[in-house]
Structure formats: structure tokens, C-alpha cells
Amino acid sequence: KSLNQYADYVKAYNEVLASEAQLEEQRESVESMYQLLRQYNVRVSGEDSVQMDFLQTKGNDFTEKKLPDAKFYIKEKQEEMVENLTSVSQHAEDESERLTKQLKQGQFTSEDAMVSPELVLEELSQIQTTLSKLEEKATTYTEHQALFEVPVPFEFVQVEQAKQTFGEKFKLWTLVNDWTEKKKAWTTTEFSKLNVEHMNKTVMEMVKTAYQLSRSLEGDEVAHKIRSQIDEWKAHMPCIMDLGNPAMRDRHRVKIWRAIGMGVSTVTLVSLMNAHIFDYKELVADISGTASGEYALEQQLEKIVAAWDEIPLPVMNHRNSRDLFILADVSEIIAQLEDHSVQIQTMMGSRFVQGIREKVETWEQKIRLGADSIDEWLQVQRAWMYLESIFTAEDIQRQLPSESAKFKSVDKFWKDTLKKVRQSYRLAMEAFHIPQLLQGLKGANETLDQIQKSLEAYLETKRAAFPRFYFLSDDELLSILSQTRNPEAVQEHLCKCFDAISRVTFTEDKKREILDMNDMIKEKVSFVNPVQTQGVPVEKWLFDIEIKMVESLAHYTKASVGAYPEDGIVRKDWLFGDQPSQSALAVDQIFWTKCAEDALNLVEKGHKEGMKDNIAFSKKQLEHSVSLVRLNLTKLQRVLMGALIVLDVHGISVLQDLEDAKCSSINDFDWSKQLRYYWCNEDVQLSDGKTTSDTAIIRQTIAAVRYSFEYLGNTPRLVVTPLTDKCYMTLTGAIHLNYGGAPAGPAGTGKTETTKDLGKALAVPVIVFNCSDGLDYKIMGRFFSGLAQAGSWACFDEFNRIQVEVLSVIAQQMLTVTQAIRAKKDIFEFVGREIPLNPRFGVFITMNPGYAGRAELPDNLKSLFRPVAMMVPDYGLIAEIILYSEGFGNATKLARKMVNLYSLSSEQLSKQDHYDFGMRAVKSVLVMAGQLKRKHPDLQEDVTLIRALRDSNVPKFLSFDLPLFFGIIGDLYPDADVPYVDYGGLQKEIENQLRLSKLQAVPTFVGKIIQLLETQLVRHGVMVVGLTQIG
Q: What is this structure's pTM?
């Protein structure tokens, strides 16, 4: 047998041996099945029995005879076959060695053969065929060695060597062939059609291949030669790349051709090389760099141009009017203009701009025009929108005919321009280039500026005619002035001019006279004489209201003084008579002062019990007043009695202090430091140096101030404590000396409220102004101008939030007014204008010194104010007086316990951001207690107060604080049994709604819903505090 046949025989034998165990298993399986059939007497056909016997015979023959014979034969022939295999393997090795030698000589290593590399490649192809056959033999023989279990395998070293050598030679001559073809194509093709990027990539790959071959075929002349050729070409590639730069334009190429002395006809690499192009590589590089720079600028400019081809100018309806349009949101256009402006400026500064300068300059002008146009356009739009609503009012048109005509011309220009935009110039850049647009917008802006200045001057004349207009914004004032033919339309603005006047009553006839004024809770005060409005400018009849208000209140107060009951205790008919509540309170204070001074005069004359008798009289008066509160009063009567009791309780405290201090004369300081009311029938000199008679005046220490009869309405009064008295004394002293007042202290201590209440005590209008760091000196100057002319007081809250630079100017403004008052001028110059002066002018500032972001007042400003510290209010006294005013008889004891409750709660309960035990919280609880007292007059007073404390505090306490809070209440009120409000029907409905909403009716959840209702009943606004996902 041959070597291959023997190998197939061995392979087949090995396969049979591998499957012998499986065949044996299958044989046993068949035999066991037949045995099972016999066991159960199943009939087997004769043919199957024969087959079974045949299987057993053949199986035994195979295992006992055939396999051993095959094994013996293989063993017998193995040595012979191994020798044969070694012989043929050696022959293959010898043949491979011959091929290797052939590849390393002759044309395969000759530089001359590089002229025709395709011939060498043909020869290599034939050698490849021979080498492939040898490789197949080596592979087969290697497999046979494994099959024959040759102990020392034969290694085909020469076959591998021939294979490697052939691979390198084939790669080398393929490179030579490719290089020759590529070089020929590159040098003969028209240069403008060459892809230099692809050329560069190909050269780099070839350089890499040539380098590898020169390393692996060391000493090979062909490898060395081709590498040197490619390297030489590689050295010229930067210049070729520059020449083939896609950014190059004809103007750049012409420049190069002229420099090397070539024509501009068909150009190839050969012609360029003949012209020694590579000697000019620096010039080429420079021109190519310039071309790249110009190309980048061109691309950038094209992006800008393309962007404006897609940006429309957005317009929208104004006030939902069909024919009235304005610019919509142009923020994107403004951002694009700014961005493109920066880009174009950068281009203009580039050294590469020269080639496209004209185009860039054109777009620079377009962008600049667009930016200027949009700025002017928006400015016109803002002013036009503001003035358009003003000049549509016929009253304004009639009062400002010249300005109205100017506005109409601008209005026509605006509408025409927007019409053009909508019809013909939808793109933004097109719209910016509407002929004469920028000039038209600039002209419109100038006209609108003139109109606004004229409007401001017009408003200033109106403010000068009625100074309270200074405290209104321009929009509010224009709203009033645009309704001059309809006086009733001014009603909604009255409360901004007169703090307490909510409405006035007009006659039904054509005269439209004003008969009376009403406050927020509908207290009606009739004017002594009606105010004429027909044919009268609005500022004139508003000024008349101010005059009639003062005259009417003075008239009612004088009448009330005359009608005061003789016994002074039973005052129900007098209190609930025709006079305004303000007059009743003022007269009450006048008679309290009179009684106190009568008592002091008696003491001075030796009647030692004079003051005690007066105190007893005042207490009886108070008891009668408290008894009135428990009656079923109207809202007006209840508010009046609340304010009266607050003042009377304080009056008794003052009298008791006088008695304790053994005060015995009306000239004693203990008496002169009190706020005292008088009705003077004779001439009296006031703090401002003027004299007055037949009016009410107020004295405190050295100050004597006229009661100004500003209508205050029927409003509650502030509880007066020793701290309040101290503040009053400082502020009235400041007024007397023409200074301002500066209460300072933490939040909730009553700084602003005390200033406002002193204004109520003197019946002076007080404007409260919350300061911020955004205030400038112009706003403050206008405000001071109004205060000086109107004679109003201003209370500037958080004054030290204003910036220091502004505060310095404010100091100068205030000093100007103060010096004019001290010089007793009637007219003075203020901020460049001469204005009339009302010496009642007063400025008060409140400050929180310890807060962050607060400025220190400049010294020149500090010197204009008298400071007063307000640190801790007297909670007990305040609570007591408010409880009295709400109708509680046992107010002193209840107040003390309530203050203890809040003190203990603030110390023992956990610290939470939303807990508040300050003055504002105390006040709200007391008001709630008053409501409960009126609703359940027969309930014990301590139970009423506990209910108010519980209902206002429990909703905001956390669960672990509730036992502590109820424990404190239990300690302070051990005997009180406080019933809970029965919300049976509401509770059932809440639970029903929860079920309908597929929610669980958890008791705490239902409880919180009811607490929310209770809180809403006593609070204007409600804040629900808690973590997310807790309902």
C-alpha cells in the first residue's frame, strides 16, 4: 500500500476504536430487548430472529478477529511507513531550500528589473504555485506524523523560510509596481483634478510599507531603492498638499504660476517639477495658508448669511386687537446680532480678510444697521405701548392737544411700519433694511421723548395742585386724570389719596356733588358743605375733599365736646350718636385730660384724695364701656368701643402711675410727659411757631401740635404700653425740634405700628413705605417733595436697606426741607424747583440693626433723627388691654396666664421654623378669643381663651409637641374643661369624599382637614408645612 492509503487505514481504525464502546452499548440494548420479548412470550418473526443471530455472529467476529488483525497489520507496517514519510518530507524541504535561493538572486534583487515590475510579478506568481504545493505536502506530512505516532516529528524549516521570503519579495515587488503606476498617474494627470489628500494618505501607507521591507530585507537593493524614491516624494508632499489645498482659488494659483514663471494653461506635476516648484515651497506654503484663512472666513460669513435667510421677525397682536401689532419676543434675534457682530469684528481683525474684505464690510454694515434698528424699535415700542393706552383717553387728548397730535403721527408711523413687515418684509434682516426705517425710528423716539417729558411736566402741575398725587404712581395718576368727566370713576383711587376714605357719595342730579365720605367698614361722615365736581378739574375737587374733610371733622369734634354727658360715666347715647368715631375718641381723650388736670389741681390745693377719686371715676367709666361691648352691637359700634377701651385702660394706668408717683401739679414732668388733648378756645402757640384757637391741640413735654383732623375712619387703636409712651415722647420731641424719629429694634416690637398710631393720635396722614436696595435718590426726592407739600408723615420701614450712596443724597434732601421748616418759609427750593411748604412734614425711619445686608447710616443722616430703642414689648399689658377691649371682665388674670403659656411653650417645645410665639401670634389669638366671646357670651372666660389658644396653635404643632402643650395648659388652667367643637356632619362628609376618592379615612388625616378649616376661619392666608408624600 502507498503512504496515503496506509494513513487512511490507520485513521479508519482509530475512528472504529473511538466508537467501539458506543457500538457495544447499542448491541447490548438490542439483546436486552429481545430477551424481554422472550420473557413475556411475545412472538418474534423468523426474519427478526435470523437478523438477531446474524448480529451476534458478526459482532463476535468483529471484536474477536477483525480488530486484532487490523491492529497487527498496522504494527507490522508502521516502521516501513515512517521511513517512507521521512524521505518524502526531506524531499519537500530540499525543494523549498532551492526556491529560497532562487528568490534571493537574479531579477528579484536587481534594480534594473524595477523598470518592468510586472514581469517580476509574473515570475513570482509561478513560484507561488510551486510553493503552494509544497505547503500542502508539508501540511499533509505533518498530519501523517501525528497519525503514525512518530516519536521525533519532522520540522519543515525550509518550507516556512521559503514562505516568508516569498511573502516579503511579493510585497516588495507589489509595492514597486503600485508605486510606478501611482507615480505615473500623479505626474501626468492635470493637477487641478488630483486628490492630494488621497495622495498623501497613499504615500504615508507606502512609506510605512517600504520602511518595514527595508528592515526585513536588509541589504536588498530593490527595497533600499524603492524606499529612497518614496521618501524623496514624501519630502515634497507638504508642498504638493499646499498646492492642492481645496481653499485655493484661481487668484492664489495664478500668483504661484507667475512666481515660478509658468503659464496658466494645463498644469501637471511634471510641468511643475520641471519649473522647480519645490524650490518655492515657502512661497507656496504662505499663499496656501492665506487661502485657508480666507476660506475659513468665507465659510463663517456664509453661515452668517444663511442664518439670516431663516430668521423671521416675530410680530403679535397687541391687546388682542385685530389690526394692532407689535414685535413679539426678539431675544433670539438680539442674541444672533450680538454674536454675529462679534464674529464679523473678529473677521475684520484677521490678516486673511483682504481677499473678502468688501463682502465682510457689507455684512458688517448690515449687522450694525440691524442692531441699531432693533434697539430703536424696542425703545419706540416700549414708549408707544405705554403712551398708546394714555392717549386713547379723550380727556387726556383734550388736556394735551399738542402732545396728542405728535403721538398720532408716531402712531401712524408705527402702524404703517408693522403693516409693511407683515406684508413684504417677513425676514428680520429684510425688515431692518426697510427704506428710511432707522431714521424713522430715531425720529419717533425723539418725538416720544418730548411727549413723555411734556407728560411728566403735566403730571407735575397736577401733583403741585394736589400734593397727595405724589404718593401715586404715574399710571395711577393718569388713570385718575383720564376720567375727569366721570368723577365716580375716581372712587377706586380715593383710598390711595386718603388712607381711610373708601368711597364718597355723589348726588343723583347733574351737579354730581359729593355729600359724605365712607371708610372701609362703611362709617359715613357727612360734609358740612358739599364738594362741587361738575366742571371742576379732578385735582381741584380732590383738594376740596381734603379741606371739607378737615372742616367737617373739626365741626363734629367741636359739637361732640359740647354734647359730652355731664356725669361722664353713662355715655352710651353720646358714644353711639351722630359724630364720627374719631371725634368721639378725641373728645374722650380731651375730657380724660381735663379730669386728670382737675384732679391734680385739687391735689395741689390740698385735697389728697383728688386723684384717687378720679381713678375710681375712670374705672366706673371703663366698666360701663366693657358692659356695652357685651351687648349686641353693630360692627361700627364694636370697633369704636374696642378703640375706646384701649385708650381708657391706658388712661387708668397713667392715673395710677401719677398717684403712685405722688404727682401734685400739672407742671410735674410725670404729667407733662403724657400725651394730652385739649380743646383750646383762646390763642395757643404751637411747636411750629404759629398760633391757633378754637381747635383741638395735643401736648407732650415741650411739644404742642395741632390736631390735624385727617379722617382716620373707624379703626382699632394700638395698645399703649410704657414702651409706646417712651416712643411717643421721643417722636413728639423730635417734631417740636424739627427732627425725624428713628425707632430701632427687632421684628415684631411695634416700631412701625407705634409711628402709625402716633399719626392717628395727632390725626396726621401717615404713608408707610417699605424700602429696598433698589431705591434711588430720584424716587426719594419725589417722595420728599410730596411730603413737604402735603404736610404728611412718612414711615420708611427697613430704612437701612437703602444703599449708602443713596442715603447720603437723602440726608441732603431731608436737610433742605428741615432747614426750610426751621426758617419758617412758605416756599422753598427743592431739587431745582420752588415748592410750597407745609410745616407738618415729618419723616420717621424704622430699622433692624442686626440683620444681614443692612447699611450703617451716614453721620449727616443720623444727625437728622432722634433715635429710640424698642426691644421687648410688654406682652402682658398688651394682652390685658386687648382682652378688655374684646369684652373680657377678668382680663388681667387671663393675660398673665396667656403670657406664661407662650413663654413656657417657646422654652419647652421643639424649635421649628414655622413656630411663632411673638407679638403677632399673641395678637391673632386675642382677636380669635374676642370672636369666641361674642359667639358664646355665657361661656367661662378662661375656657373661651383656652379654646382660642388651642384652635390657633394645635394645627401647627408637631405630634410630639402636642402632649407638652396640653400639659402646660393643664398646669395653668387645672380646673378648666374645654369642650371640642362637634363637626359630626362635616366629618361624615369628609370621610365619604375620601372613600369616593379611593383614599383611606385615617383619623389623623380627617383631623388635619378640619384643622385646615378652623385655620382658614381665623387667618387671611394659610401655609401648609411638611415633607413630600404626607398628604
A: 0.67
